[in-house]
Amino acid sequence: LNIRFHNQQRLMLLLIIVINIIVMKIVALGQSQDYAYVGYLAPTALGVMLIAILLDTSLAVVSSIIFAIMASIIFHTGTNELLFNFHFGFVSLVVCLVAVFAIQKASQRSAVLKTGLLISLFGGLAVLSIVLLENQFSDLESIVLSLAFVLASGMLTAVLVIGLLPFFEVSFGILSPLKLIELSNPNHPLLRKLLVETPGTYHHSVMVGNLSEAAAEAIGANGLLCRVGSFYHDLGKTKRPSYFIENQGNMGNPHDEIEPSLSKEIIIAHARDGEQKLREHKMPKPLC
Predict the structure, then answer these.
(1) pTM for the whole thing?
(2) Is the pLDDT of residue 271 over 80?
């Protein structure tokens, strides 16, 4: 469990928890003792999905237990002295854990929708298991409505996660795996510029990306970040393509016609030029 976060990440974690509790409380306002099943509509897996994508999978598992306990308290509408409602706690724990394991290593935003479908499926199975265990078949209307609400909660969770992800990515400068995959798309304007104007540099960058990813994963670092960063690391060469040997082909070497000191300045400047282009296109700070 990685708890050695920066203050910015701690603030983001706190904000995710607060948002999740507020959403649960809003749903709880529509509850009553006669309509307790409304609580199944709550997107309790919202928080754990955001934590798994933006922070840490192990932390998301721990958060699943915490959110399940909170759900069992918030959605408890009984008149008995018990503080918890086992039904909501159990269903919430199931959907949260399913969400964590379904969303990890997600490579595109459509994976969030697939996770939402899995939440609906396993949430429905959890509700049915409770009905079977307690033999509650006499109230068929409540069973049907409970299933309908828990199925809807999966889609609601996916929609909220897709809507909130860009907010957290921009506000906290987070490069989520989903965002990194998008930036590695060859159709990205900067990568397309690199491919068209400096094909030799593009091929070199792809090779460096593969090497750096393998090296990073060997020491437990962020391999995906290293790979995507490598794709952009020589972007500055697009300013003067012919001054770099991988783009010269059969043409002459322009460095032969200029002073060595000027050659040195041109070669060194490509790093600065690349960083400037990244900032002009408002690329994420870690990549710059």
Answers:
(1) 0.76
(2) yes
